[in-house]
Design a protein that fits this description.
Elements lengths: L9 H8 L7 E8 L5 E8 L12 E4 L12 E11 L8 E8 L10 H11 L6 E11 L32 H14 L3 E6 L5 E10 L2 H19 L3 E3 L14 E6 L1 H4 L4 H13 L1 H6 L23 E3 L6 E3 L1 H6 L4 E3 L8 H13 L13
Parallel strand pairs: 1-5, 11-12
Antiparallel strand pairs: 1-2, 3-4, 4-5, 6-8, 6-9, 6-10, 7-8, 10-13, 12-13
Helix pairs in contact: 2-9, 3-4
């Protein structure tokens, strides 16, 4: 690793991590804040739990996270999923939560609630999702790890899926994150170095319905925590370095029961046609700063022009060649930015393909 200003002494820390908790369990409550980031706080439980329904509701100061005004600042967090904690081990857990206002309505940044309603209403279609999370590792100075200070490495070419010094950077962070996700039960299905040096990708899925959003958000939390221990910064900005460098995306793969059966290509093409009719609405919720990434270059489509095609990485929607050959399978929506909210992305896909649900409109940029 490069130089870091982070103060950490693992040997000293481990003395305390090994101490007996006397039957207590630490539950790390995790929620999404008003700026599409993650926040956490820890609750001590008297015993181990096996189901999120055993956990109590909690609250936090929403005026400090951009989710409530100062004169009515309490926001409530309701557990929706639990995962083994890879940092503390034992019976300790990570808790994914939803944010709710005091009047019993979902907080305006609670996109999970709307997404789940759409998933439940269309459960008969058995939607499967797999998301490809790209990200860039930065040093404490905010410049990509391994890059010359204030300068640039050699042009893109040798870095994608590369091996060897000078071709890949920070593999220790990537491997640590991979193992931590597996321990936590995240459905992480692979990793690879990306086109720009210090840019990486991992894949989550396939997951059915709302579970994809839970697993992807939890994997982001784990990534931030791992990088914190190495003194690195993680950015999911869709265009972290301007110029002739690839941006970062959150390519979204989707299939339904109809798409996976023989003759499913018709269902895939029908879905693509529907998606083309709502390109603008999708772009609104596919992440901030996406216009800098979706220029029609660097393996992207133009942000204002919808297209789909077989094996075309310059299209909005790519249909894998193997799927076209077999006449069934899935499609890849290449438009979402790396900072997109998976609940909003998967939710609007369901909304566009299967129709609106009363009281739910995921096409709004802001509530």
């Amino acid at each position: 690793m490069a130089e870091s200003t982070t103060i950490s002494n693992t040997e000293n820390l481990m003395k305390y991590m090994k101490l007996d908790q006397k039957g207590a369990v630490l539950a790390e409550y995790i929620w999404i804040d008003g700026s599409n980031g993650v926040r956490t706080k820890t609750k001590t439980l008297k015993k181990a739990v096996k189901d999120y329904k055993e956990l109590p509701e909690w609250n936090f100061d929403g005026s400090s996270t951009g989710q409530a005004p100062g004169d009515n600042s309490d926001v409530y967090i309701r557990p929706v999923a639990i995962f083994p904690d890879p940092f503390r081990g034992g019976d300790n857990i990570l808790v994914m939560t939803e944010t709710w206002d005091p009047d019993g309505t979902p907080n305006k940044f609670n996109y999970r609630h709307e997404c789940e309603r759409l998933m439940e209403a269309n459960a008969k279609h058995e939607p499967w999702f797999g998301l490809e999370q790209e990200y860039t590792i930065l040093g404490p100075d905010g410049w990509p790890y391994g890059w010359p200070k204030g300068g640039y490495p050699a042009p893109q070419g040798p870095y994608y899926c590369g091996v060897g010094t000078g071709k890949v950077f920070c593999r220790d962070i990537v491997e640590a994150h991979y193992k931590a996700c597996l321990y936590a039960g995240i459905q992480i299905s692979g990793i690879n170095a990306e086109v720009m040096p210090s840019q990486w990708e991992y894949q989550v899925g396939p997951c059915e319905g709302i579970a994809l959003g839970d697993h992807l958000w939890m994997s982001r939390y784990i990534l931030y925590r791992v990088a914190e221990e190495f003194g690195a910064k993680i950015t999911i900005d869709p265009k972290p370095i301007k110029g002739d460098w690839n941006g970062t995306g959150l390519h979204t793969n989707m299939s339904t029961a109809e798409m996976r059966k023989d003759g499913g290509m018709k269902a895939i093409e029908d879905a693509c046609k529907k998606l083309g009719e709502r390109n603008e609405e999708h772009i609104l919720v596919y992440g901030e700063g996406n216009a800098e990434r979706m220029t029609g270059e660097h393996e992207t489509a133009s942000i204002d022009k919808f297209s789909y095609g077989v094996a075309n990485r310059g299209a909005s929607i790519r249909i894998p060649r193997q799927c076209a050959k077999e006449g069934k399978g899935y499609f890849e929506d290449r438009r979402p930015a790396s900072n997109g909210d998976p609940y909003r992305i998967t939710g609007i896909l369901m909304e566009t393909i299967f129709g609106f649900e009363d009281g739910v409109d995921l096409s709004k940029a802001e509530k």
